[in-house]
Amino acid sequence: MPEKERIAGTWAWIALAWLHARREGVRVALAWLLRGLAARARWCGRRDPGERAAERFLRALGYEVLGRNWRSPRDPRDEADLIAATPDGTELAVVEVKRTASRWDPLDRVDGRKRSVLWRILCDLEEGSLHPGDARLRDAVRRARRIRIDLVGVRGDGATAVVVDYAPDVMCRELRTEAGPERRAGPMAREARPP
């Protein structure tokens, strides 16, 4: 989380605690703060171990993770596990993470329904339909020449989760041609493996 957003969030918490203290008293405000901090601590520890392993893997490749569990403003049921920018910033990757604890291939679990959800998310990013607070993501979309879908397969559970398969550029959209910033229509679908 960027420093400015963290500071703004901290001031919002302090302002709400002050309002609770003025309205209901100091004890209620303190209880509200403690409940909020406990809920935040429980939520931060609940991230999927496969997503954490995939994020470590992408960071090791030089990617900058811009969003985790990003939901589309058009349809909140459409979710991308990770959104990352390539090291040079010219491509944006919508990353789907599949984890398995068995010997089966985790990427085989990406079915046609999930591929269509990922395609809709890719189109939402291309059109610029983002949440108002997604300033970093909005800047990354403006700089990017392509938006693509990557698949990451993770095997294991908890601290033993490790990336075993990586399929970059499963589907992509060209945002800008070399001649200028005009957008091209039409998907360039390239399957890394059979559906």
Structure description:
The protein is an alpha+beta fold and 195 residues long. The chain starts with a helix and ends in a 6-residue tail after the last strand. Strands 1-2-3-4-5-6 form a six-stranded mixed sheet. The chain is built from five helices and six strands; from the N terminus they run H-H-H-E-E-E-H-H-E-E-E. It folds into two domains: 3-44; 49-189, Trna Endonuclease, Chain: A, domain 1. The longest helix has 22 residues, at 3-24. Helices cover 40% and strands 26% of the residues. Residues 177-195 have low confidence and may be disordered. Helix 1 (3-24) packs antiparallel against helix 2 (26-44).
Span between termini: 36 Å
Q: What structural category characterises the helix and strand content?
A: alpha+beta
Helix content: 40-55%
Q: What percentage of the residues does DSSP assign to strands (E)?
A: 25-35%
SSE order, one letter for each helix or strand: HHHEEEHHEEE
Please render the helix and strand layout as text.
Elements (H helix, E strand, L loop, with lengths): L2 H22 L1 H19 L4 H12 L3 E8 L7 E7 L5 E10 L11 H16 L7 H9 L2 E10 L6 E13 L13 E2 L6
Parallel strand pairs: 3-4
Antiparallel strand pairs: 1-2, 2-3, 4-5, 5-6
Task: Give a short summary of the structure.
It is built from five helices and six strands. The protein is α+β, with helices and mostly antiparallel strands and 195 residues long.
Give structural attributes.
single chain, 195 residues, alpha+beta, Trna Endonuclease, Chain: A, domain 1, six-stranded mixed sheet, 6 strands, globular, disordered C terminus
